[in-house]
Amino acid sequence: MIAMHRAVWLAIVLPSSRERGVMSGLTIRELMVLGGMSLVFLAGCGGGKASTVSKDNPFPAIITISPASTLAGGAAFTLTVSGTNFISSSVVNFGGTAVATNFVSSTRLTAAVPAAAIAKDGTATVIVSNPAPGGGTSNVMSFAIGSGTNAVPTISSLYPNCTPAGGKAFTLFVGGSNLLASSVVRWNGSDRPTTVNGTSGLSVGAQIPASDIAAPGTAAVTVFNPATGVSSNSLTLTITPGGVFPESIAVDPTGKFAYVADEGCPDGSLGAVSMYTIDSTTGILTSIGLSVTTADFGAGAVVVDPLGRFAYVANASDLDINNGSVSMYTINSTTGILTSTGTISPPNSGLFDPSSVAIDPSGKFAYVAYESGLTPTISVYTINPTNGTLTSSGTVPAAGRAGTITVHPSGKFAYVTDFSSENSSEVSMYAINTTTGALFSFLGTVAAGLSATSLAIDPTGKFAYLANGGSNDISMYTIDTTTGLLTSTGPIAAGMGPRSVAVHPTGNFAYVVNHGSNDVSMYAINATTGVLTTIGTIAAGSSPSSIAINPSGKFAYVTNYGSNNVSMYSIDVTTGALTLIGTIGT
Question: What is the pTM of this model?
Answer without folding.
Answer: 0.69
